[in-house]
Amino acid sequence: MKKKIAATALVSTFLLAGTVYAGGKEWNFQEPPYDFTFGNHIDTHQQTKVLPSGELKGFLYVEFTGEYNEDGYPIAKHTDCFDEMAECTVGWTLTGIQGHATFVYHESGDHPLWQVHSRSDIPQPGAYSHFHWLDDPPMAGMLESGEMLHGYFLELKAKDTFVFKHGNDEILVTPGLDLATHLNLVTVFPDITDTGTGGDTGGDDGGHTHE
């Protein structure tokens, strides 16, 4: 009987450990070892650490609003997790690799748009769809167009199914790789004001046949 109780307790311990791991890292105000900071506003909803390889590992947080969309999925958004009233939970796990990108423009309520010089600048293998800069300026609205900044390319993996509300967008998120919610990279951003051709800046078809 004692052996049966001990075995049951051991199984329960493993199940509990699995639940904690699956749930991600509880917000703890960026205490070690998840104490890396970008030095700007993203730090209000991220906890990460730098591995010996230089790679970034950690979590991106959301707060559920208590509302649901028409299909019954809960709605969540980023918030300031340092606010004592905030109830933050892990929305995504993230992996980051250092790099550079040039700021293009920022529309209020959306992520700032960044341009890479070449597609080969985007880390591979992986699904790095988001770039975030390091240090100043503190807010995206203070970035200057044409400025190249150092930062991290981020790959996001969603933990649960929910609707992410950001600006005017509401995006359905499902567990696994997420290329949509934080997408902010382009490789070509021509100035179409002087071409008079709707953005066609040349005859290079990029290796594709257009029909």
Topology summary:
Elements: H1 2-23, E1 46-50, E2 56-68, E3 74-77, E4 88-105, E5 113-115, E6 130-133, E7 148-158, E8 162-166, E9 169-173, E10 176-178, E11 185-186
Parallel strand pairs: 3-8, 5-11
Antiparallel strand pairs: 1-2, 2-3, 2-4, 4-5, 4-7, 6-7, 7-10, 8-9
What this model shows, in words?
The protein has one helix at 2-23; strands spanning 46-50, 56-68, 74-77, 88-105, 113-115, 130-133, 148-158, 162-166, 169-173, 176-178, 185-186. The chain has 211 residues and is mainly beta. It has a domain at 54-186. Strands 1, 2, 3, 4, 5, 6, 7, 8, 9, 10 and 11 form an eleven-stranded mixed β-sheet that branches. The longest helix has 22 residues, at 2-23. The chain is globular. The model is unreliable at 1-22 and 192-211 (pLDDT under 50).
Provide the descriptors you would attach to this structure in a database record.
211 residues; mainly beta; eleven-stranded mixed beta sheet; 1 helix; disordered N terminus
